[in-house]
UniProtKB/TrEMBL annotation:
Lineage: Bacteria, Pseudomonadati, Bacteroidota, Bacteroidia, Bacteroidales
This protein's record includes keyword tRNA processing: no
Signal peptide: 1-23
One function term, GO molecular function aspect: hydrolase activity
Family to which the UniProt record says this protein belongs: Belongs to the glycosyl hydrolase 31 family.
Domain Glycoside hydrolase family 31 TIM barrel: 221-515
Domain DUF5110 positions: 647-702
Protein name: Glycosyl hydrolase, family 31
Domain Glycosyl hydrolase family 31 C-terminal: 562-630
Amino acid sequence: MENMKKKMILGALAILMLLPVHAQIAWKQVEPGVWKGVVGTPEDYSLLDVAAVTPLKESFARLPEVALPALANEIVGSIQDGKTSLRIPLQKKEQLYGFGLNFQTVHQRGKILNLHVDHYGGKDNGRTHAPVPFYISSLGYGVFINSARYLTVYAGSGARKDSPNAPVVKDRNTDKTWTASPYSDAVSILVPAPGAEIYIFAGPTPMDVIRRYNLFCGGGTLPPRWGLGFTQRTQKLYTAEDVEKEADEFERQGYPLDFIGLEPGWQSKAYPCTLEWDEKRYTDPAGFVKTMLDKGIRINLWTNPYISPESEAYKEMYPVSGSHTVWCGIVPDLAGEKGRQLWKDKLEKEHINIGVSGYKIDEVDGYDRYVWPDVATFPSGISAEQMRQTYGLWVQRTTADLYKKRNQRTFGLVRASNGGSSSFPYVIYNDYYSHQDFITALINSGFSGVLWTPEVRGSKSAEEWLRRFQSVVFSPMAMINAWASGTKPWSFPEVAKQVKEYALLRMQMMPYWYTEFARYHFDGIPPFRAINLEPGFNPEQIITSELKTSNLEDNPYLEAIAKEIKDQYMAGEYLLVAPMFAGQTKRTVMLPKGNWYDFYTGKYVGNGERITVSPGLDRIPVFVKDGAIIPFMEATLHAPKAGQKINLEIRHYGKADGAYRLYDDDGETFDYEKGVYSWRNIKVTRDKKGRLHGTISKAEKGKPNSIATVTWKFMTQE
Ligand code: GAL
């Protein structure tokens, strides 16, 4: 009898073990407004560990105090089949943003994504350069899954039979609003591991959510000033003489240039790479780098991490590389200390010690054939899948460390990234080339703690060339990538003058760009971001009549994307940029509530409305908020060096009073982390006669001060 009972209990237990285990999550506050919850047994290897995030603690104090969002207690996790599924509730009117670097839509509700590091293949299916498992809700909270696995996300698709908010059943024969993917009341995420770590970021606003995420990841990156100047990537197979000549040509023609990127050809072998200079094209690498530095131009090196059998590093790296090769090159196991150290030593010895200022680290994303297969193994024991999800993080972290150690800032390019990377000094790029989708990616980068450049390569016409150039000037990295095309800023003589004007505008706006990046660092505010984050923006404003008939019950995805704005964005605190694309002579611009002014003339343009503009080829439409204060400097060909003084021209727009804090530091080192920086208060108010009047606070003694003289320009004439 006893035995029988025992057997029955054991049997019942066995059945229970086969059923998914639903667990209520215990939330632990880890920073103000940031909570961590654990389901099952998460893996040791995670995105945040690889990125080695160190929260910027002191900055959280500047955000409003918040309580754990109520939905946290409704999040459930269950484990079945060695995998964890998470269910995070959604409300009817909620919109979702983020899930990494998407190229075609800003709203993500209703999508099914497989978050997988890859080269973007033309479809927003989760395979992208930075498939960051982080989303932000329009209701003002965010969710991050700290897993280095390929995650499957049902972003409000898939309805449970026991849902209290189930979609309405419809007859496909008779009801036109029938849809294959009806409304769902939750985001479901499948993590292929027996546990997961989840983070909740509170608002109250979606912008606050993003700020907390970026601050949690160490604060956004603060590039050196030169990183915000202009950069040209020269054609492949260039020699030292070709590069020097090109730099001289920029100078002679009066186009700004801060750094040059060398593309394949500087190494003795590429694909796989030796990491060693080609002796014929670069007979004296150290002398070459020095000559360039003397011209005021820094050198950035293209490479991929796969090491050629012809490299001196090959033999030693062999035992600490993966089981599979990439184009016959070995893959350094960067998750292991030894592999990382050997890679660092090589870069340091060959490049950094002779003055190279940064890297473009290519081919760390995928295309599947361009990386190791998922069956590869690595000596560190990290699986091929986890390595694929984190290799971009590793190359950023290791190279960033090398520069940090020298107290020298860098700013470079990378083709893969993931969660936790906000503080890495890298900008993502790719081989895709849709100007429109590049702008949508720029918008989405702001939701994921990454930077993106809509780089200019070639163009079919002078019009396209100028349109692309105008956009890249209002982005994190103003760049021509001429590796294949050999283009120069002046390649289309019909628009060479306009291109120069915009390249110089980039330089004139340096104090603004630099301050906005300081805000990215200290406050977590993305310098380039969606209009959806702008106070005064109301998405309901843009619902067109045909949409009035649809709702989230019918088709969440279609409704969401029909409401979105994916071709205009905010650049810094005050600017709304609305790029023009080749073939367009006019476009509409959605202005959030508040008075907006034309960037070039200071004239009033509208308030909380959709306007149509036809600016002509010479202008990219840019609009400015009422009361904006935008610091300009003279148009120089190189960014100011540490300690160099500039003449400030402070522009004010609109009728409202204005206040701005202008950031300053040496622009080159990490001394700002020790408090060696300053913020100058700029104010514009009206005097008794109603005339605008500007003031700037005095430079603090012993603090960095790059300002020589100040002039004022009140752009909006009454
Ligand atoms: C590509 C990269 C290009 C260029 C090229 C050089 O993979 O995306 O920007 O660097 O390699 O071969």
